[in-house]
Write a structure and sequence with these properties.
The protein has 832 residues and is an alpha+beta fold. It has 24 helices and 34 strands. Helix 21 packs antiparallel against helix 22. It is globular, with a radius of gyration of 35 Å. The structure holds zinc ion (2 copies). The site of one zinc ion has 7 residues, from loops.
Length: 832
């Protein structure tokens, strides 16, 4: 037979060759029907921004190695990819260069697809989904209609987050520290009529079910729990005594009903819905001016504890049903319309913000809680927020304040001016966007019939193409001559089409379901297929999605389960959030100029080196520091592996048979292989510790090289070598996907692919290192000989020696001066 394998490693050549073969043979196509158990490995799908960056390379390599490992372990593995392709960059590029967002997106997808293939990823490309294509967004719109039917999608006028730079509203989750998640501009408040999804209906379940997610890190679960923000307290109602508009009542949410006897004023948000009715004519002008001012401020500014408190009185008063006292009503911007009921009962003695406000405006401070450690009186210089017992609180005096919360709310409930209330910080999800490049919200407005959903059979509502992208200050979609005119589905009269499009986070809230049945044109997906493949067994992506995509997807899954579309209620069983790729200590970014172009690495070293390197430095969850020397080192290692095979190619027997009894050197090598199989399998199974997997590749390669230095190439030697090399190839095949395939094709004479092989198995007895005879001396004289495991460390050998019965007897009543350990040989104990 003619040897095909070249002496030298040419990754560029073999990688292209195998990528073509895999594609032509449909090697990574996943059948829905299989007798094997299923395994769903998923990376968060990319936005087609133009080019892959190293963060992508890391994310997709991690998932790919997991997918390949599981496949070799006997699973029917689903490992799909797609494009989160609606969104602002495409539209901004269109505005800047006059390009069409669809064309810009298609070109980027084409380029990035080429890059993903160059990386040798095992995707089932038949299941590719692209969210901006009508075969996908038709179903995004259809799902919107299902939410609408269930009362989970609604339109309301609200103070919403507005980003000037992006010229659109944002969801609360997309405002990070008062800034836009995408462009970092400071977010403003605007009053707009917008579409929302009622995620708050699911707040309780989203919180409670975090306990089910054993395969998620505590960090993400804590972030979600804090964002959902459950608190327990009470709603208390206060009658207004002197509103010019007659009887009115103000409900207040509080987590401190125990302090109700200490209320000295009440604050409503400047946006409070009834604020005009609560304002006396004399105060109207000042209140209006104040509200106008508040409108211009960001939430962060308003809630800042550093800022001097501002506010104006409304002129009206409330009565405290517990004391019969009346107190004044104010408006102040530290109360927010969206939180609680938009009104705050102010107890300056026991709340820091209220205290600062009362001091500024000379409002009374009434102490109702105290404890033994502190003497407090009306002259306190800060709010008393510790626990204690009640005073000045009528029949509740002397009660512990923690108990009083319940007792006071019970009284309010009995007498009809309050009730227990659980509240969440989570707000409904604002999904309208005043932009073009998104899925149009499928509703029309009829003068006669009001808001009407588009009929399902009329989906998709297509994005218009006759738009002017050069407009500013409004959505380009509104420039279309054809889009807005519609027919009312109820009365057949003229109607106006909704011009807002959906937040792209809607598209990504269900894409993982579509992969189960990506080409279905009749349904968003078949229920049976979704139930078969989902939940995702291993999800891999960035932590930045902790309370965005990962929360929205959980909400979608629960809502879709309630609609009967699926049977499970959590989408992702295990979540791995990979660390960042750093260079020179900071995150790779264009603005810092510290990026490394994956294309260059592929070209200079090949994809296998890139894959090996990106996994080698640290565990996946940790940040990873790029080093050119590290890349070079990985390339050298692959060359070394290649040479190990190519120079000894004639000594490889593909169908090797290991004899039962082996010579010592061969037995040692076989044991080293079993130790490596066991170690590598455990490292991958246990939180994907790929960095230690790669050091084990190196150790085993070194052991095989050492062995070749002493071999005489007897038949037994050849069998042993073949076993070692073939095992090494299998172990390395999920990472060095091309190199191992090339070797496999050569040694198997082209009969099979290494990627269809079973994962290597180890023998527990052989996976132990061989034993040695440890000699134990006392003052230089041999006193004992003990059989011990070869791999033991110095400290362990010392301990074994000192615990030997013979040694204990010898050194009884003597003092150990020192202990000398010669690894793998002897321990000498010096006594006097
Ligand atoms: Zn922005
Ligand atoms: Zn109508």
């Amino acid at each position: 037979m003619v040897r095909k394998m070249k002496e030298q490693y040419f990754p560029q050549e073999i990688e292209k060759k195998w990528q073509k073969v895999w594609e032509e043979n449909g090697c990574f196509h996943t059948p829905n029907d299989s007798s094997k158990p299923k395994y769903y490995a998923l990376s968060m799908f990319p936005y087609p921004s133009g080019k892959l960056h190293m963060g992508h390379v890391r994310n997709y390599t991690i998932t790919d190695v997991i997918a390949r490992f599981k496949k070799m372990q006997g699973f029917n593995v689903l490992h799909p990819i797609g494009w989160d392709s609606f969104g602002l960059p495409a539209e901004n590029a269109a505005m800047k260069h006059g390009a069409n967002p669809a064309k810009w997106t298609d070109e980027n997808i084409a380029y990035m697809t080429k890059q993903l293939k160059m990386l040798g990823l095992s995707y089932d490309w038949d299941r590719e989904v692209t969210t901006c294509k009508k075969d996908y967004y038709k179903w995004t719109q259809w799902l919107f209609l299902q939410f609408y039917k269930k009362g989970l999608a609604y339109k309301k006028e609200a103070a919403v987050n507005w980003c000037d730079e992006c010229a659109t509203v944002l969801a609360n989750e997309q405002v990070i520290d008062g800034k836009c998640w995408r462009c970092d501009s400071v977010v403003k408040k605007k009053y707009l009529s917008q579409w929302f999804l009622k995620i708050t209906d699911y707040a309780d379940r989203l919180l409670a079910d975090l306990d089910k997610l054993d395969g998620w890190g505590d960090n993400v679960k804590t972030m979600q729990a804090n964002w959902i923000g459950k608190s327990t307290g009470a709603i208390l109602k206060f009658k207004v005594t002197d509103s010019p508009y007659g009887d009115m009542e103000i409900p207040v949410y509080t987590t401190r009903p125990d302090t109700v006897h200490g209320i000295t004023y009440l604050v409503v948000a400047p946006e409070y819905k009834d604020i005009e009715k609560l304002t006396t004519p004399e105060n109207k002008e000042a209140v209006e001016a104040y509200r106008e001012n508040a409108r211009k401020m960001t939430e962060i500014e308003r809630l800042s504890t550093e800022r001097v408190k501002t506010g104006v009185p409304l002129g009206t008063h409330c009565i405290n049903p517990f004391t019969g006292e009346t107190f004044p009503l104010w408006t102040a911007d530290y109360a927010l319309a969206e939180y609680g009921t938009g009104a705050v009962m102010a107890v300056p003695a026991h709340d820091e913000r209220d205290f600062a406000f009362a001091k500024k405006f000379n409002l009374p401070i009434k102490i109702v809680i105290t404890n033994e450690e502190k003497t407090i009186d009306e002259n306190i210089t800060e709010a008393f927020t510790d626990e204690g017992f009640l005073i000045n609180s009528n029949e509740f005096d002397g009660m512990k304040n923690t108990d009083a919360k319940k007792a006071i709310t019970e009284k309010a409930e009995k007498e009809g001016f309050g009730e227990f209330k659980t509240q969440f910080r989570l707000r409904d999800w604002l999904i309208s966007r005043q932009r073009y490049w998104g899925a149009p919200i499928p509703v029309v407005y009829c003068d006669k019939c009001g808001i009407q959903p588009v009929k399902e059979e009329d989906l998709p509502v297509m994005l218009p193409e006759d738009v002017d992208f050069s407009v500013t200050g409004k959505s380009p979609i509104t420039t279309s001559k054809t889009f807005q005119d519609a027919v009312c589905p109820v009365c057949g009269g003229p109607a106006r089409r909704e011009t807002d499009t959906m937040d792209t986070f809607i598209c990504s809230s269900w894409y993982y379901l579509r992969y189960a049945d990506a080409k279905n044109s009749e349904k968003c997906f078949d229920k049976e297929l979704a139930d078969k493949w989902l939940p995702v067994d291993q999800y891999v992506g960035g932590i930045e999605h902790a309370i965005l995509h990962l929360l929205y997807s959980r909400f979608f899954t629960k809502a879709l389960k309630d609609m009967g579309l699926i049977s499970f209620d959590e989408p992702f069983k295990n979540l791995l959030t990979q660390g960042m790729v750093l260079k020179d200590g900071s995150k790779m970014s264009k603005s810092k100029g510290n990026t490394v172009d994956p294309d260059e690495i592929f070209e200079n070293y090949g994809a296998d080196t890139a894959r090996l390197f990106i996994l080698s430095d640290s565990p996946p969850a940790r940040d990873f520091d790029w080093s050119d020397a590290g890349v070079e080192g990985c390339y050298k290692f692959l060359n070394r592996v290649w040479r190990l095979v190519s120079t000894n190619r004639n000594n490889i027997i593909f169908d090797y048979q290991l004899p039962e009894k082996l010579a010592k050197a061969n037995d040692d090598l076989v044991r080293n292989v079993h130790i490596a199989i066991k170690g590598i399998t455990n490292d991958i199974s246990n939180e994907f510790q790929f960095n230690t997997v790669i050091s084990k590749y190196r150790e085993l390669t070194n052991a095989i090289y050492d062995w070749t230095n002493q071999t005489k190439w007897t038949d037994e030697d050849k069998q042993t070598f073949s076993f070692a090399v073939i095992s090494l190839m299998k172990l390395m095949s999920p990472v060095a996907v091309h190199l191992t395939e090339e070797v496999w094709a050569d040694i198997s004479d082209g009969k099979s692919s290494i990627h269809d092989q079973e994962w290597a198995k180890w023998d527990e007895n052989l996976a132990k290192s061989s034993s040695i005879t440890l000699v134990v001396q006392v003052n230089g004289k041999v006193k004992d000989k003990i059989e011990v495991d070869e791999s033991l460390e110095q400290e362990e050998l010392k301990e074994i020696a000192l615990n030997s019965e013979k040694i204990k007897a010898t050194i009884e009543n003597k003092t150990v001066v020192k202990t000398i350990v010669v690894p793998k040989k002897l321990v000498n104990i010096v006594v006097k």
